[in-house]
Amino acid sequence: CLVDAGTGLLQEVVYLVSQGADPDEIGLMNIDEQLPVLEYPQPGLDIIKELTSPRLIKSHLPYRFLPSDLHNGNSKVIYMARNPKDLVVSYYQFHRSLRTMSYRGTFQEFCRRFMNDKLGYGSWFEHVQEFWEHHMDANVLFLKYEDMHKDLATMVEQLVRFLGVSYDKAQLETMVEHCHQLIDQCCNAEALPVGRGRVGLWKDIFTVSMNEKFDLVYKQKMGKCDLTFDFYL
């Protein structure tokens, strides 16, 4: 089960690593059919239950709402956290890009809603801290989006070990290269707002006063947590 803040990218990297696939193969498929979303009505829980093991399932749900198999350690969960400043910018662009959401407010208004826990799936601050409390659990792999750009090889090695797949040295190097190719394709896709996948894009839209307010809220809500983020590389 994947729960993350880099949904499209992580699901494709995990599919690559788990299936030994290549980026061209992923480009020809509907990846969302390979990794159905747990809480969406389509394809639905009945169809998800019929998938053959090992199943790859995606979710944005808080830890407390995930199936009991995950809480009991009977299934594995990969969680990806992204620094919240980049996350809120990407989330804003995502809301504006979908007709079903058609958000037309300003970024300042959207960011205010984010800081006040008024967006879908509840509070990001609670969501990330709840998973961080379980990051040492044997069935949980807690990843950071920024590390995918900073040290992809180490992240791929972590995924290989966690997923229990087998690669020799040459195969592992090839898989890392495939993942690099995939990330380049995703972060530079013409269909996406320019640079939505890069680290530090918040600097292009945050004003000084917004940044000061965000830092204050972040300190208030995350002050007791030892989880840290890279806000630029």
Automatic annotation (TrEMBL):
PANTHER family: SULFOTRANSFERASE SULT. It is an enzyme of class 2 (transferase). InterPro entries: P-loop_NTPase, Sulfotransferase_dom. It comes from the Eukaryota. Residues 6-225 form the Sulfotransferase domain. Coiled coil: none annotated. Gene3D superfamilies: P-loop containing nucleotide triphosphate hydrolases (3.40.50.300). Belongs to the sulfotransferase 1 family. Its EC number is 2.8.2.-. The keyword Secreted does not apply. This is Sulfotransferase. Keywords: Transferase. One of its GO terms (molecular function) is sulfotransferase activity.
